[in-house]
């Protein structure tokens, strides 16, 4: 049965592997993702999680529609059956709505440090899923790369004080881990869904926008963003989510998921650098140590 579903919904890898090009896509994506603390810190002033997610999703959807039209001459025409569209909708719900709602709930209900550390378990989950689902073979160097990268993340997030890390709320922690699993599963499935990346991401964010709108009306209220919210929402919708998702899917189709996953550990390190640059937070030694560890993880992963 599973094999039949794979035949219906997924495509075999038909694009030649190109690690260098894939890495460029993923690194660009990571630089956009690292803006999340900045836009979250400035964009939710006066808006709750549901409202901020809806407006960001709306901008992402419009961004993907425009990107698709701009690149229409580069897009290979393909006939997509209803089963593939249905599965893209399901995966879009997982990756553009469910993971964010769970994360936002975690940030609202638990300590930020606790959520961040659990959130960045997703590269390891992604590797494990790729082993079982994509049948990718993982060598010792790749496992070592993951461990070194995770060490860099711990160093940055705890600022070198590992004793400050406590997991006090098992239920909330479980939801955050579920969010990390959603990100991992979404990424692996995106690698194999047989729809061209621009159209695929357009489906993703149409789904996410509709889900976020329903969620906002169900659990919050409709509210227009203020002047202060507009720029963060635009940055989040266009770059952090919209364009980054195109880059992520393109990168995944050019290299093994297990090869690309460790580079996700760069995100919190670059986020720390952004916070230093934009909010004049002090540059601390653990940031530099964390950056060195994450860079070492990338070198080991080659």
User: Mean pLDDT score, rounded?
Assistant: 80
Strand-pairing-aware structural class: mainly alpha
The stretches of 5 or more residues where confidence is low (pLDDT under 50) are 1-15
What is the N-to-C succession of helices and strands?
A: HHHHHHHHHHHHHH
The shape is: globular
End-to-end separation in angstroms reads 36 Å
The count of β-strands is: 0
Largest pleated sheet = none
- Which value, in Å, is the CA radius of gyration? 19 Å
Helix content: over 70%
Tally of individual helices: 14
Oligomeric state of the chains?
single chain
- DSSP strand (E) fraction? under 5%
Describe it for me?
The protein has 302 residues and is mainly alpha-helical. It is built from 14 helices and no strands. It has helices at 2-9, 19-33, 36-43, 49-70, 82-109, 112-119, 122-132, 140-158, 170-192, 197-219, 227-252, 257-260, 266-279, 285-300. Helix 2 (19-33) runs antiparallel to helix 11 and helix 6 packs parallel to helix 9.
Per-chain topology:
Elements: H1 2-9, H2 19-33, H3 36-43, H4 49-70, H5 82-109, H6 112-119, H7 122-132, H8 140-158, H9 170-192, H10 197-219, H11 227-252, H12 257-260, H13 266-279, H14 285-300
Give a short synopsis of this structure.
The chain contains 14 helices and no strands. The chain is mainly α and about 300 residues long.
Structure keywords:
single chain, 302 residues, 14 helices, globular, mainly alpha
């Amino acid at each position: 049965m599973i094999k039949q579903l794979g035949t219906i919904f997924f495509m075999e890898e038909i694009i030649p592997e190109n690690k260098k090009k894939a890495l460029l896509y993923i690194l660009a994506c990571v630089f956009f993702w690292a803006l999340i603390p900045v836009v979250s810190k400035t964009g939710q002033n006066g808006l709750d999680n549901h409202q901020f997610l809806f407006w960001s999703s709306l901008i992402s959807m419009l961004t993907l529609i425009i990107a698709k039209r701009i690149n229409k001459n580069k897009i290979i025409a393909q006939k997509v059956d209803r089963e593939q569209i249905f599965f893209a909708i399901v995966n879009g719900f997982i990756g553009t709505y469910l993971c964010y709602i769970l994360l936002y709930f975690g940030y609202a209900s638990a300590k930020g440090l606790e959520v961040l550390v659990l959130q960045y378990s997703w590269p390891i989950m992604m590797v494990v899923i790729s082993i079982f689902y994509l049948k990718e073979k993982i060598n010792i160097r790749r496992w070592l790369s993951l461990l070194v990268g995770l060490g860099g993340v711990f160093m940055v997030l705890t600022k070198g004080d590992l004793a400050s890390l406590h997991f006090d709320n098992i239920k909330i922690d479980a939801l955050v881990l579920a969010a990390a699993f959603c990100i991992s599963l979404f990424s692996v499935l995106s690698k194999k869904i047989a729809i061209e990346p621009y159209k695929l991401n357009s489906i993703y964010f149409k789904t996410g926008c509709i889900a976020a709108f329903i969620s906002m009306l169900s659990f919050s209220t409709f509210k227009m963003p203020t002047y202060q919210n507009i720029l963060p929402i635009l940055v989040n919708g266009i770059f952090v989510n919209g364009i980054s998702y195109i880059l992520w899917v393109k990168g995944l189709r050019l290299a093994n998921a297990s090869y690309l996953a460790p580079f996700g550990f760069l995100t919190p390190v670059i986020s720390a650098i952004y916070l230093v640059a934009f909010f004049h937070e002090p540059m601390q030694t653990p940031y530099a140590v964390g950056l060195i560890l994450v860079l070492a993880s990338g070198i080991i992963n080659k």
